[in-house]
């Protein structure tokens, strides 16, 4: 990155490592210096919550607001009915309107933790592209918008080309997605003066489409900025764990498990994660990331506390750290561990250890659970056991039983 920005927002983005590419640094920088810039990121409502993979772009919106500009979270109430084909091997399952609305409500809970939604000049807006997509007249849309798109060019986009190169079906429904997303940018500029779209680098083609369409239809200059697609230092996709997605809702993933995810970061990722996912000064991020030996663990605790505080609050972060210390340092149970509460009816005459391991989320399947136990990877109340068939009665569970898979994953099982 050789460009030196004058605006605070671009300076933060560049210094902290948020930018993969930008359509026009100089013009965007000038706009950021001269006015409050409305900028958006789109989110299709394919799940009931956002996950850690979304957090980098949420932080970009947060910094946008902190530097005086207006973040827009665009919910894909309309585009979710089509499904983004980008880099997928198959078509997304289609969701009902009711399920889409339910997912949007769940995602709103996450955004409210990071952004200030109000009527001030840079108060965040929550919009839904169903506002303009649901009422489109198909023939008018083809005539007024479709004529600006070249099928040859659309086929050249990597997100589409990779699918076709693998001889995997791409439906006409999905092929329309990039046109609808481009139309979103045009409509947001018309209705709300939106000047900037941000997103992951896999969205570059879609963003450029929207910029080009807006120039052709209403002769306005707007801008695009993408973030890098993040992987951990060992090459894994950011946000995935042994048990699936790292959700950003406390009722889908406990604050302790979220805290533990960050505490388990590899040494090489600490400085980068501190810059991207916290608001600590860059110099402090570098200092913490350069610590060696056992001191790097203190930096990981700071990382976990800072990120958890942003999402779940300072009390949840402190409780998670206290639980981790109790579990790891003192061999105790810890009050904030993930908990599985079973009814007396569920336990019946007894429930096997293998079943408890699966029900508590420490293994995905019974086969995985039995293997974990047979290989000595499971402890019950800090004692290793290899008896997968061991039965626990309701009386056994009146005092919570601590299950530990390896050194880092724990759960409490009790009777509700």
Q: What is the CATH architecture descriptor of the largest domain?
A: 3-Layer(aba) Sandwich
CATH superfamily of the largest domain: HUPs
Share of residues in helices: 40-55%
Instruction: Tell me the β content.
Output: 5-15%
- Mean of residue pLDDT values: 87
Number of helices: 19
CATH class category of the largest domain: Alpha Beta
Say how many strands there are: 15
User: What separation lies between the terminal Cα atoms?
Assistant: 56 Å
Biggest sheet layout: 6 strands, mixed
Structurally, the number of domains stands at: 3
Which fold name corresponds to the CATH topology of the largest domain? Rossmann fold
Principal-axis shape? globular
- The helix/strand class is alpha/beta
Main sheet strand line-up: 1-6-5-2-3-4
Radius of gyration: 24 Å
Low-confidence stretches: none
